[in-house]
Amino acid sequence: MFSITREPVPDDALLRTFRGGTHPERWGSYVDCFAVGVDRNVSLADFVFAFYTSRLFRIERGLLRLLINAPSSRSEARAVADGTTDKFAAWYVGQRTSTQLLMCDRYERTRSWFRVAPKSGGQTRLQFGSAVAARGGGHSDVSRRPAAFEPLLWFHVVYSQALLHAAKANL
């Protein structure tokens, strides 16, 4: 879809290595990674800002405002992208490096991960991934994922790819 590829989550991805939060043992039940190439240099800040201000994500921002009273603005998207704030809508910054950003939701149920990987010739590989917490203690027990997640998995995969495509288009 849209030249987006699904690939394994890199071993050094914050989505795998970050164990902060209230129940670090619950992470790893579900993780994914989608990637796309861009024919120019893209900074992490530009990628995150393009993602959170894309037309598609603006719909999600509106729903978050209405459903869980988690408003957000374009200027707040710029601030989290630039690293001058650690909160955006329903998320907080779990960890940040120069090439990666991990956002954790305020309910400690999901995480979103962004990464830029510069390539030769002025190109950049954009990566976006998600993690869903298990209900119990074991992170490898697939049956411990939230029950509502399983029927929505196909939507999550398609939506994640569409979000990455929208971010690329917004760049």
What does this 3D model show about the protein?
34% of the residues lie in helices and 26% in strands. It has 171 residues and is of the alpha+beta class. It has one domain (5-170): Alpha-D-Glucose-1,6-Bisphosphate, Chain A, domain 4 (2-Layer Sandwich). The chain has a seven-stranded antiparallel sheet. Strand 6 (110-119) and strand 7 form a beta hairpin. Helix 2 (44-52) packs antiparallel against helix 4 (74-82) and helix 2 crosses helix 5 (149-170). The two termini are 18 Å apart.
Brief write-up:
The protein is α+β, with helices and mostly antiparallel strands and 171 residues long. It is built from five helices and seven strands.
Structure characteristics:
seven-stranded antiparallel sheet; 171 residues; Alpha-D-Glucose-1,6-Bisphosphate, Chain A, domain 4; single chain; alpha+beta
Strand-pairing-aware structural class: alpha+beta
Q: Could you state the oligomeric state of the chains shown?
A: single chain
Radius of gyration: 15 Å
**Structural domain tally:** 1
Instruction: For the largest sheet, list the strands in their spatial order.
Output: 1-2-7-6-5-4-3
- Tell me the number of helical segments per DSSP (H or I, 4 or more residues long): 5
- Report the CATH architecture: 2-Layer Sandwich
End-to-end Cα distance = 18 Å
Portion of residues within helices: 25-40%
Main sheet overview: 7 strands, antiparallel
Number of strands: 7
What is the level 1 CATH name?
A: Alpha Beta
Shape: globular
Mean pLDDT: 88
The fraction of residues in strands falls at: 25-35%
Task: Outline the low-pLDDT stretches.
Answer: 138-143
- Give the SSE order as H and E letters: EHEHHHEEEEEH
Q: What name does the CATH topology carry?
A: Alpha-D-Glucose-1,6-Bisphosphate, Chain A, domain 4
